[in-house]
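Batch manifest, entry 17 of 40.
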Amino acid sequence: MELVLARFRRTNYPMFTGAEGGLMAEGWLKHMEELLIRWSILRRRCEESNS
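Output type: structure tokens
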């Protein structure tokens, strides 16, 4: 998990100013949630196939 967090911190994630009313930030968070859910599912499948 530390590796994933370290890689995330190195990404060029967007900076939000609030001028857009939070819609861009909400959209980005939703996108990140979907990616994390997919990653979790793939990780679980890999663990199950290795056991």
